[in-house]
Amino acid sequence: MYINILFLIIIFFPYIVHLCNHELIEISGTIAFLSYTNNMECTWTFNLSSISNKIHSRNLLLTFRHFDTEFGHDELFIGETIPNVSKYNSKLFRFSGSKLPDPCLIPLRGDILRRSIWIQFLSDQTNTGSGFIIDYKFLVNQSTSVKLKPQEVLIDAEILHPLENKSQHSKLTYTYPYGTISSPNYPQNYPNNIICRWHLYHRNAFIRLYINEFHTELHYDTLTLHLGQNLNNRAMILYEWSGYDIDNKHLFIRNDNLFLIFNTDKSYSAAGFSLQYQIIEKEVLKITPTDELLDI
Hints:
Elements: H1 2-12, E1 18-24, E2 28-34, E3 40-46, H2 48-52, E4 59-68, E5 75-80, E6 91-95, E7 104-107, E8 117-122, E9 131-139, E10 152-159, E11 178-182, E12 194-201, E13 206-215, E14 222-227, E15 237-241, E16 250-253, E17 257-263, E18 272-280, E19 292-294
């Protein structure tokens, strides 16, 4: 009897998660989280209603002085609270490992009393790091002492029907209705600190993607698939890929408006990616058994 009870406890309660929550009400300060343990879930929330009474802030600057966590398992997330949007879909940044992150400058958009900023740290049940130290400061305007080199927009392409394509921004030519999209320099390493954007659209059409190859710096260099025109709405993110392991290489998307956005940070790079696209008008629609059907 006792053995059975012990077995059930081990199966259904394998570990206890240690929760901690902190409310930050000052316009500047330091978050020091050192020598953390396993199975932790800690959240720091900036109380913008209290802070806005002290200074009419427009930006939040986060500067990392130390960062060391178990790579890929113990992760730090930074996001904003958006009404009717889950925390998973409202993340702005994600960090893991021992690489010191660049400063994060977060604009306070819209109604700051409803869009609070939060920092969350999650650790798993094995191994730890030495933790992190973050300085934070609310700024009225972007600080001139913070030298954040903007990302270079390397590709800005519209892949549309020839009668609709009036864009002059693309540095490369992409064919309609099918062709290949790849990261800059592929199969050689892509550059650091760039952003590339591809917009696939045809009214009432469907979009098919096939991923040939994919290898980027895990967590830091990402390819995002975004539905619709509002790129600030993270709830419309369909996929966000990084690393080298993608489960779904065949995608069939029941949406006629898709953005592919490739972001890289300031250090490290990899071979990148290559994918095939096809914009399918309804009268020529054919679905193969290997396609993943996404009813969006």
